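subagent[fold] <- orchestrator: predict structure for attached chain, return tokens only, no commentary.
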Amino acid sequence: MISRRRFLSLILGFGAGLLFRSPSVRAAPFPQFFFSQLRYRGGQWDPNPLFVEPIIEELEIRTSIDAAKERQILTLSDSDLFLCPFLYMAGKYEFDPFASTEREILRRFLSYGGFLFAEDTIGARGFGFDRTFREEIRKIFPQNELKRLPADHSVYQSFYLIGSGPGGIGGRQRVNSYLEGITLDSWTPVIYSQNDLSGALARDSSGKWVNDCVPGGETQRTGAFKLGINIIVYSLTSDYKKDLVHHPFIRKRQNL
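subagent[fold] -> orchestrator:
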């Protein structure tokens, strides 16, 4: 089994410390980021198709990450899966169970350094997408529980410092004031939300937001963008910056 660092060094030419756009920080170009989304059978695999362009735009504006404008849509049987360390999965309803071969592929992908951000866009615990996803991830990692991530987890500090306040851990809605995840050693290859992050970021062709954010309005939407960027940055960097979270420059990012 190759390490996650080896995985990223081979696939992305990974290098730490290349993220911030600041006159005081000289940064080499970051390898191109590809937003890859999982298409599965049954349910509704693409509940918010209009959110990818806005988050990619903000990612490039706020960081040094060069991102492809078009998302890649993959299934678990696609050979390109292991060339795309970041994988997104979303839904509203129950979906068809993965085949045993698909579970093994996803287990290997995540164990070898790949990353999955999954979200239930309705936010009904124990029903619909949430029920099926929890069942599938339990079969993939029977020894590792999907549990609440602690407040000091690196994903809350990877770019912005994110707390549980009004602009913190939310999306179109705020079902939970936290993210959940599967952690293997010190790395969390699966992060899960029920707050419909993508619903907060979706924008139509005229530039208007598709959904209102409740209960926090535009403050909550701003927080959703920051959280989305943090999740992507975490998928590329893990916790290399965990000991630097009190650096003045990183603290300054809270106000952007």
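orchestrator: received. Logging for downstream: Helices lie at 4-11, 52-62, 100-111, 128-140, 197-201, 217-237, 248-252. The longest strand covers residues 187-193.
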